[in-house]
Amino acid sequence: MDTELLKLFIETTQFGSFQKVADKNFVSQRAVSKRIGQLEDSLHVKLFLRESNKITLTAAGTHFLKRAKQLLAIINTTSYELQSLDKNVEHQLSAGYFSPFDGAILKKALFNLPDDISVTVKEAGIEHLVSDVLLGELDCAIIHNTADYHYNYQELGLSHFVVLADTNLIGVSALSPYATRSSLAEETLQEKPVIYYSNEESDYLKKSFAASLGKIADEINIVRETSYEQMQMLVSLNQAFAFYPGGIVDELQSPTDKIVYLPLETANTQDFTFEIICRTDNHKFSLRKFTGLL
How many CB atoms lie within 10 A of CB 46? Predict the structure, then answer.
């Protein structure tokens, strides 16, 4: 499929006028109309209803608009990936993260990499990330660790080092009477589901949080949420509590998130670390440059 033709079609739907698209691209209105006609002929459907002073999408045109955007995204992504493969492997870096929080840490370092290093990034559950690093499908990944629950990296043959150390916090709705307190009693967590974010099936964080709570964890409903936005919505509306990593959560706070982040009153440690993991035998130039920025 001609990418320029796809772009022309999408522009036409945005402007709603062959003439406006023609003006933008410094061509004639007739040229734009002819190109759209060629697209319709190749698809064997009418994409636009043409009236005297306006054009509107047909049902087929509306459907094709979604596909056109998807096709362009796939083509652009594939083009970038092919260009990356063409580069020296030493100047390629693949990195993984599991949540918006460690993703924010990853992003800062990636932005400071030299321009000649090609980067691919993947979001996945923690178990998936560890597996991908071990298999060599990822050069590195950021992992959440607590004192009571973490992988044995030495046994796995992985190097690891801390990029953030802080304390877990509990997100409470600003609508909640607990929002005015300086901390949250751990028995309060029995009142509502306590949610955590993971975009794919994973119980690593559930086990990690349960380990940090001790015996009371058996009386608390810890639930995975597959959408970060949904997690924020549920907490904001006072329908749930949620675990958050201190030291980074403020950077992702949205003005619309009516959430207060409180330390937990507990005898169990709430300390955590975000750590970069990589294979001990991975000595790539790009990985050394990246880890030097963290």
Answer: 14
For the chain, which ranges sit under pLDDT 70? 1, 80-88
Q: Looking at residue 199, what is its pLDDT?
A: 86
Each residue's pLDDT tens digit, 32-87: 999 999 999 999 999 999 887 789 999 999 999 999 998 888 887 777 666 655 55
Do residues 194 and 222 touch, judged by C-beta distance below 8 A?
yes
- Inter-residue long-range contacts of 107-113, CB under 8 Å, 24+ positions, other chains counted: 109/290, 109/293, 109/294, 110/290, 112/293, 113/286, 113/289, 113/290, 113/293
Q: Are residues 189 and 141 in the same domain?
A: no
Instruction: Please report the pLDDT score of residue 82 as a whole number.
Output: 67
47 contacts: CB under 8 Å, gap ≥ 6: 9, 36, 39, 40, 57, 58, 60, 61, 64
Residue 239: Cβ within 10 Å count? 12
Global pTM reads 0.67
Residues 234 and 247 in one domain: yes
The domain in which residue 206 lies consists of 166-271
Q: What is the CA radius of gyration of the chain?
A: 25
> Is the same domain home to 186 and 151?
no
Whether 92 and 138 have beta carbons less than 8 Å apart is answered as no
Longest pairwise C-alpha distance within the chain: 75
